[in-house]
């Protein structure tokens, strides 16, 4: 007679198989592959950092790249960098994403887009009490409202293009790990990035019938000119807490982002910490992959325990920092 332990060992893989099959049936939207070769990829914030790295990576894979930013001189320099790196000439668009008319005019000038990457972003770290409200508004206007302006201007052309070509289109939104978990000194910034999650989840439901697929990219601190400036202004506690996540190169983030975008991933983490955060914060977000869904289901409880451990560490750090002062 089989022992209970042996029966349990036999039942575990069977239960996992049943769960996997159920998730394969339930996972939505369905899996998709988004090609970028010979397609129009528009990247905002494309004159430096992650945006420029994304533009180079997309151009190297045969995409027709357009980059949009505010600074005409830096855009021209970026275009030369892209040409030297890939042999492809990118189109440049000068516009401030805070201005819906300027964005609409730029999108009309460049024509229909197949892949829109809303990568623009600004960050001024400071405790809310000390931060000027104009700085908070600036972050929300660029990070959140700028994304609204871009998507609203691009959508009609994207729908027509997807219908004409029969190929899936993509809208990728650059968030941050600070858009998954709040951190000391990031009050306004995190608010602007958390809001993008709600935008993306709702938008995916609105555009899925048009074969348009939404992705959210969650990088950690990334070695860019913007990060160097931001680190000069960070409160000491922000540096202590946020510094534990590590730093990535812009090129590595760009590769992760582009690979995830092409697979239609809704949540695109960029490192191990990001993957753990993605599991911990999956919630009711769309999930195409039954394998990833399985990890989310099985790992949710454990990741909640780990998250409580992180919160203990952060709040202990804050308490100790204040006690010393």
UniProtKB/TrEMBL annotation:
One of its GO terms (cellular component) is endoplasmic reticulum membrane. GO terms for molecular function: 3-dehydrosphinganine reductase activity; nucleotide binding. Belongs to the short-chain dehydrogenases/reductases (SDR) family. Pathway: Lipid metabolism; sphingolipid metabolism; Sphingolipid metabolism. It is found in: Endoplasmic reticulum. Its main location: endoplasmic reticulum. It catalyses: sphinganine + NADP(+) = 3-oxosphinganine + NADPH + H(+). Transmembrane segments: none annotated. GO terms for biological process: 3-keto-sphinganine metabolic process; sphingolipid biosynthetic process. It comes from the Eukaryota. It is an enzyme of class 1 (oxidoreductase). Coiled coil: none annotated. Its EC number is 1.1.1.102. The keyword Nucleotide-binding applies. This is 3-dehydrosphinganine reductase. The keyword Oxidoreductase applies.
